[in-house]
Every structure is written in structure tokens, then in C-alpha cells.
Amino acid sequence: MDPKSQRVKLNDGHFIPALGFGTGAPPEVPKSEAVEVTKFAIEAGFRHIDSAYTYQNEEQVGQAIRSKIADGTVKREDIFYTSKVWSTFLRPDLVRPALEKSLKDLQLDYVDLYIIHQPVALMPGETLFPTDENGKPMFDSVDLCRTWEALEKCKDAGLTKSIGVSNFNHKQLEKILNKPGLKYKPVCNQVECHPYLNQSKLLEFCKSHNIVLVAYGALGAQRTLQWVNPNLPFLLEDPVLSAIAKKHKQTPALVALRYQIQRGVVVLAKSYNKKRIKENIQVFDFELTLEDMKAIDGLNSNIRYYDFQQAVDHPEYPYSEEY
């Protein structure tokens, strides 16, 4: 099946490919690798590329996209590119300059989707994670509705086609949806979502408001990341996923990705391994049965790999809510 036709319609009329390539990598991976793997992902058939200012690799990802446009593999309009406004830029007057900086790094005229990376605002400045002398995060206090208005202006200016959010709970989404004078609804909410944290309540909420749920961490998490709890179970070693994978002659990773697509969730597959990048695009070549889906639903145990504990004292910390 042609992955290019596997798209989901957003509430603003644009389309997002159901499978995306995640470009975030642990700090020890050289930034130059992002050029190679992004090029490879595009050659393999990925058309949805997900990055962010905080990944510090937009220059390299942009270079890869432009080189694949230059050699005729794709046109700009074939690529759906997502960037994110980082927490140190959530003050309304900093949003557009942050997007302009990303566009300059990418050397692109627009992004397809620009989203608030997470609702916890951090003190503006050069550092991504500003801390005080005791190593405590330096929080900022921002009205997210004003931040949202700044994103609406970026859309009106043609710097981004669509706007959305990430890591928002349903109450934070509601705040934006109920904002007086709302011009554009968020098209998506990008959140950690996998069989151990299937986000069924949040998914239902988003669907009822015509907001697409985008899943990151869909294959579990890399243990090398300092903020991931090393004692949590490995998702891809789960016996239920392994049994379903064996039955379909697929890998547990493909089963985890396919599960999301069949629930109407847009899923990001992050890998810097060429063999696995090629494999992940095959998610459209098979289908899970109703029994398979039920069995995977049964794995939900609210295990969150990325719980951003450092921000637990911020009033906008999203995970104190059930969903």
C-alpha cells in the first residue's frame, strides 16, 4: 500500500500523513546523523517529518529535506514538516521569532504544523532548561491562551499551515477551545501514547472535538535518556505484542505502530537505524484483528516513560490530571 495516501484530515482542511518519522535523538548521537537518516527516511517513503527547536537538529533535518527536493525525490508540498515552540518561548511576543528562527535553520518558507511543545513555561533565555543555583527549573508564568493567539497569528502570516499542541491534558485543551474569540482550533495534541499508556480517554476527548491525537514514544522509550525511569518494563519485549507479531509474521514494533493507526491515531516512529526505518514503513502491509486490538488494549497500565518530573511543581504540569 502506498504510504503517501495514508493521511488523516485535520480540522482546518489540511492532511497529515498517518505515519511520521521522529527525528529526536539522545545527546550523544552526532547532529550530522540527522541529515543521513532523514534523507534515508524520505527515500524509504516517509513524508511526515517531526522535529522541534529543542532537538537542536533543524538545520540538519532541513538540509536533508532540501536535498531530497533538489534531487527530485519529492516536492516541498509532498513533505509534512512539524516543528514545536519550546517552553522558553511561550510568552506571546517570543512565539513568532522562535518560528522564524526554526525556518531560518531549516531554510524553508513555512512549516506544515507548529505546535506548543508542552504547557509548562520556562524562563526565557539562551538555555533550553534554565535552572537556578540549586539546580531547580526556573519556571515562567504565561497565559497559554495568549500563547495560542500568537500561534494563530503565525498561521495567518503563512509561516505555518496548521497549529496545534503537545503534552496537553483535556483541561488545558478545553481552556483553548473555550477561549473567547478563538480563531483556529488546535488541529492536534501530540502526546506519549503506546500500549502501556493507550490514552483512551484523551483520545475520545480529542475525537469528540475533531482534534487528531499524535503518538510519540509509540515504541516505548530509549533507556539512555536521563529522564526515563530505567526500572520500567520494555514495551517491545511484551509477550502479548510478541505473540501477535509472530502470528502476523511482523515485529512487535510494527504491531505497536499498527495498533495506533487502526485507532485513528497518527503515529511517530523514531529510529536512527536504517533497517528499522525501512521496516517501519511496512505498517500499512497488514491488519490487526479485533481480537488483537482488544488484547493490546488490555495492556494499558498507565506507564509513562516521559513524566517530566522536574516540572511537577508548575501550575500547568499536565500529568496531575487523569487524562
Mean pLDDT: 95
| % residues in beta strands | 5-15%
General shape: globular
Low-confidence stretches: none
Largest sheet: 8 strands, parallel, barrel
The CATH architecture would be Alpha-Beta Barrel
CATH fold name: TIM Barrel
The total beta strand count reads: 10
Radius of gyration: 19 Å
Distance between the termini: 34 Å
Count of DSSP helices?
A: 10
Following the backbone from N to C, one meets helices and strands in this order, namely: EEEHEHEHEHEHEHEHHEHH
GO cellular component, one term: cytosol
GO molecular function: aldose reductase (NADPH) activity; androsterone dehydrogenase [NAD(P)+] activity; bile acid binding; ketosteroid monooxygenase activity
Keywords: NADP, Oxidoreductase
Family: Belongs to the aldo/keto reductase family.
Descriptive keywords:
two-stranded antiparallel ribbon; globular; TIM Barrel; alpha/beta; 323 residues
Task: Summarize the model shown.
This protein has 323 residues and is of the alpha/beta class. It is 33% helix and 15% strand.
Describe this structure as you would to a colleague.
This protein is α/β, with parallel strands linked by helices and 323 residues long. The protein has a single domain, classed as NADP-dependent oxidoreductase domain (TIM Barrel), CATH 3.20.20. Helix content is 33%, strand content 15%. An 8-stranded parallel barrel has the order 3-4-5-6-7-8-9-10, surrounded by 4 helices. The protein has a two-stranded antiparallel ribbon with strand order 1-2. α4 (144-156) links the parallel β6 (111-116) and β7. α1 packs across α2, α3 packs across α4 (144-156) and α7 packs across α8. The chain is globular and about 55 Å long. This is NADP-dependent oxidoreductase domain-containing protein. Residues 19-300 form the NADP-dependent oxidoreductase domain. InterPro entries: AKR (IPR020471), AKR1C (IPR044482), Aldo/ket_reductase_CS (IPR018170), NAD(P)_OxRdtase_dom_sf (IPR036812), NADP_OxRdtase_dom (IPR023210).
